[in-house]
Amino acid sequence: xxxxxxxxxxxxxxxxxxAAAIQAARKGVQTILVSETPWLGGxxxxxxxxxxxxxxxxxxxxxxxxxxxxxxxxxxPGGLDNxxxxxxxxxxxxxxxxxxxxxxxxxxxxxxxxKTPIEVCQQNNCITGVRFxxxxxxxxxxxxATELGDLLALADVPHRWGWELRSEFDxxxxxxxxxxxxxxxxxxxxxxxxxxxxxxNEGNAPEICAPPHDTPQQFVKAWENYGSEQFLNYGRLPGQxxxxxxxxxxxxxxxxxxxxxxxDKRQEFLQESLWHTQSFARFIQTQLGRRYGLAESxxxxxxxxxxxxxxxxxxxxxxxxxxxxxxxxxxxxxxxxGQVAPLSVDAVALGNYANDHHYPGVDFPLQPKSIRWGxxxxxxxxxxxxxxxxxxxxDGLLVCEKNISVSHIANGSTRLQPVVMNIGQAxxxxxxxxxxxxxxxxxxxxxxxxxxxxxxxFAPGAIVPLFNLLSLHPDWLxxxxxxxxxxxxxxxxxxxxxxxxxxxxxxxxxxxxxKGIFQRHNDQDYTITLTEPAADAGKVWTLVTLRPxxxxxxxxxxxxxxxxxxxxxxxxxxxxxxxxVDLP
Length: 584
Known about the structure:
Elements: E1 2-11, H1 15-26, E2 31-35, H2 63-75, H3 92-104, E3 109-113, E4 119-123, E5 126-132, E6 135-144, H4 150-154, E7 159-160, H5 166-169, H6 180-184, E8 194-198, H7 228-233, E9 236-237, E10 241-244, H8 266-288, E11 292-294, E12 320-321, E13 347-351, E14 370-373, E15 376-379, E16 382-385, E17 397-399, H9 411-414, H10 417-437, H11 446-454, H12 476-485, E18 512-522, E19 525-532, E20 540-544, H13 548-556, E21 562-570, E22 575-582
Parallel strand pairs: 1-2, 1-6, 2-3, 6-17, 20-22
Antiparallel strand pairs: 4-5, 5-6, 7-12, 8-10, 8-11, 9-10, 13-16, 14-15, 18-19, 18-21, 19-20, 21-22
Helix pairs in contact: 1-10, 2-3, 10-11
């Protein structure tokens, strides 16, 4: 049995684990990252969710998430304005290359692929390493970055699986008593993503074979009330590709989902989930014709997925740590009369997605946390406290995926790709600081983590959600610190009055100049009827923006005012992403 020793061991190459390993190594400590698949990035790449949700506003594109988005803008031919489910959609191969390049550029980061954990090494109440089939890796700090919280189970670390009743956390959306939903779906349903390709009008795509359990009848209402074109454009990617991750009579799969935490039955569930998606892909081709077929060369081959099928499912929920702090629904909902959730003074990451739960065939009502900003719906921003990453009683361990200490209800917001990436970066920074200071994660001063994240030389990350303060603004760091020092002054609007910086925008040569007549339909609801260029005269586009300076300008524009603006057109969403407004 081979044995390696390192400062930080990250088990799992998903969204959070990849970010954690990169951040720990960039902080200067010896790091080993062990992944099950040959692709890093998890949800963002290997699971095929190449149209991520959340943290899309410019002020929230910070840290490694912001660096990832900027790299995608630079590397993705055709741009990222392709789908209507996300502000960014891309070929997952591009994302996988970005993560691989980042990891391989760090000489103190060793990446080992194709291994799953078998046993967790412990001494007294401290995790000291992990055993794999032919390898033991000892570490000062170990991070559980597995998709399903496998290290928590292997080490008998206290954790949750399933629902909490309202009596536990007093969450307004939690059930009062167990019911059919809580029994049928202990966690949210995963989705095995498939990528389809448009082969053109000739209709010569290879036929998609039927799986052993082909059930087309369950998909007959999949795009009812949407139409096939809008259905496909939901997850449109560049290069005539389509990400199929469709929740309505689609490829969410949750039959006996509890098998995921039964090691003897997990493969059985995964095979059924893959067959379910194969059946859905075949149904789409049967209904829409042989113009659409499998994009066979997207993913590398694997034991189950590969080719057009993702390497593993998009897991929406995991075993969840019982940590020093638990994130509850109240912690992600807006404060009374405001647009932000309560600010945790121990925050180390931020997110802003709506609370979104997936149970096939079930419409589960939740307390609303969506708001309108920049002409579109977005989510109330919230923060993740450091204590949600730290076990309540186990040393030598941090978590950094969907396995943080969070309630089942709040997990619907904390599970999204950008916030998990932020959590991973914070966990990696904390692990590196523990090595530097020679302390356990529970003893690490939170302010040390916060300062290190804010001042990181490669990818400084925002901790306090402020809608109208970009990270390039000269006052960004001082206001982040001020709100952490004076949480009582954190504005419930999520904005403060300061001079906006407009010179941080990219060159206008990358944008389309357009002229037209502005229409104000309601608060944060705008369109423009184009007058120039002449070929587009009369066309109406919804106006949206991710930039705070442009948001201010649009709010102050008058109905029927003539405007010249620059931006990017999204044909799938029929919106224009405004980057600059030229007011007369």
